[in-house]
Amino acid sequence: MSQTEGARLFRESWIAGVRAHFPGEPKPGYVTPWEDTPDWERQAAGAVFEQVRQFLELSGGHASRLSREQKSRFVATSWTAQMYRAFDDPKPGYVADWSDLPKWQQETDADIFEAVEKTMD
After folding, report:
1. What are the tens digits of pLDDT across the range 92-112?
2. In degrees rounded to 5, what are phi and psi of residue 120?
């Protein structure tokens, strides 16, 4: 899977996770379709997809044994690094520690990791 395809999978998994876990009606920006996603966000999604893919590959597939929390933390930390890469002064919500993220976002991040796992089968 190319990084562009991986970025798109990341975004689609994010949207599906938001729709499944967000309490109430999500902000429009949370569910913006791929075609309308800003370039910086597409690049960040592709980078995080690739980080998860490489992590799974380098572990010989054993990273799939991580708990959902560990999977979610990996995605969140990878995303935070991309926000610091994309912005000199990112919004606090973009770089919040995993424990400070809302439950819906933690669950969505775990879903993203598991979506990348499925591409490795």
Report:
1. 989 999 999 999 999 999 999
2. -90, -10
Identify the CA nearest to 105 among candidates 22, 34, 38.
Answer: 22
Mean pLDDT by 10 residues, the chain (121 residues): 93 97 94 95 97 96 94 98 96 94 98 96 74
Neighbouring residues of 1: CB distance < 8 A, sequence distance ≥ 6 = 9, 53, 119
What is d(CA 49, CA 34) in angstroms, rounded to the nearest whole number?
15
18 touches 31 (CB < 8 A): yes
Contacts of 78 by beta carbon, 8 Å cutoff, 6+ apart: 47, 48, 51, 52
Token couple for 110: 């775990």
pTM for this model (two decimals): 0.95
Q: Is 44 left (phi over 0), alpha (psi -120 to 50) or beta?
A: alpha
Name the residue type at position 73: R
Residue identified by tokens 């044994």 is: 65
